[in-house]
Amino acid sequence: MDNEKQPDPAEEHPISDYYDRVKQIEMQGYESGVRKARTALFVTAAILFASEIITALISNIPLTPTVIIIAVIESGVFIVLALWTKTRPYAAIITGLVLFIALWGLAIVVAGTSGAVGGILVRIIIISYLVSAIKPAKAWEEMKKNP
Fold first, then answer.
1. Domain map (residue ranges) of the chain
2. Residue-wise burial string across 46-82, b where 16 or more C-beta atoms lie within 10 A, e elsewhere
């Protein structure tokens, strides 16, 4: 009985090990899309802060605490959303996308045509990054739910 070879735990479940490796590779692919969205949300926060300050200076609006607080709150929301992508990327990305488009709409209402076209290339890039991350974020959350 002492001569019986004990099965090697590494060889015991080759199919489940293969499945786990495939799942890990899929998660890495989804995480790449989520990281892009997280970066886009951080960049959005920086751009919003800078654009609020620059717009105030160009428009000869004094940099009062109220103006600075508004800029900090706007950018702070996007920073929080970027951090939220670590646990709930789908909800964070959708919220960020809706909020970003709503802020663009508000800029159009306040500034008219110049609000619509001002920084349009940057806005399109941010929106495209966020939209492209929706599918991997959803898949990432579903995979986390169903291990």
1. 16-145
2. ebbbebbeebbeeeeeeeeeebeeebbebbebbbebb
